[in-house]
Write a structure and sequence with these properties.
Elements lengths: L3 H8 L6 E8 L15 E8 L8 E10 L6 E8 L1 E2 L2 E12 L20 E12 L4 E10 L12 E11 L1
Antiparallel strand pairs: 1-2, 1-9, 2-3, 3-4, 4-6, 5-6, 6-7, 7-8, 8-9
Length: 167
Amino acid sequence: MLCPALLLLAAAPAQAGELFGGVYVHDVKLPTDLSGVEGGLDFQIGYRGGGIALTPLQPYAFAAINSAGKTDYAVVGLSAKFGRRIYIRPGLGVAIHTGSAEKFKDPNDNEIDFGSRLLFEPELAVGTRINSRLSIEASWIHMSHAQLFGTQNPGIDNLGVRLNLAL
């Protein structure tokens, strides 16, 4: 006999995802990080899947390229959208980056020494629906390893906007 929860999952309608792209100020100095030394803009492109079963959870993946040749990164994670016309979207992912994974290299080299190649990526967005297919979000992206890989944990914060196109 099938579990009722499995039947609900199987009966859930398929939902299309969305493409998104954005521009972010790279390495903004905020109280949530100890860096603020890298510059440039991050150009982000990604995909967010439809809702998972009957939950507000949506898988996402994106990549960001830095205009100043500093830290680029790619992320996979889960977000949740709360609200319809105006909404909030928290997310949590795992990032891999091209920056320095060293610990305490040179503090004057204008490069973040993250201390790990893999980082946690919490994010928070506030958005509004423009029409049935377009929405725009202001978002904050943070990346750090939460001192799980050593005491050095400068982190990085990026602030920006992204446009979402529902498929």
